Amino acid sequence: MHELHGTVSHDDGLTLTLTRDVAIPVEELWSWITESDRTARWYGPWSGEGRVGATIQVTMASEEGSPTMGMRITECSRPHRLGLASDAPPPFAWPVALECAARDGGSSITLRHTQIPAEMSLGDIGPGWEFYLDHLVCAIEGREAAPFEDYLRDLSERYAALA
Questions:
Q1: pTM exceeds 0.90
Q2: Strand blocks (E) in the chain
Q3: Distance of alpha carbon 136 from its chain centroid, rounded?
Q4: Residue in 99, 77, 130 with CA at minimum distance from that of residue 29
Q5: Partner of 123 for a Cys bridge, out of 73, 76, 116, 156, CB 3.0 to 4.6 A?
């Protein structure tokens, strides 16, 4: 059974916040969220020019059919904050921020998915981000992660109730 890690706030739509700790330095964690060969191991590879204002193409490796989507880089403050915004049409064009911080024994990553329309269910969104962050931790630790279906089964109802 998977544990619910997310918290939700209701300022300017819904904001989902998730955090994971890892036993690597913050600079190495940064490489796991910015280097295509590493993102390929937990989220999907990307191509394009990795700079603020550019749109990269990200292949969603764990999604059915491995679709590619555009993500505009809105902020890049190495090694602490990466801001992205999907180029998907509303209501799916949400801003996401990944924040890395040093901590005793390693570092932490916090994902903030903001401006989620209040009428949307968190029943898929929450388990999806839990899945991807757990896959990041497993990739860093060199172990297998659970399939997405397990996250949906274990977390969908609890996330839907948070909104």
A1: yes
A2: 7-9, 14-22, 46-47, 55-59, 68-77, 81-86, 95-103, 106-116
A3: 9
A4: 99
A5: 156
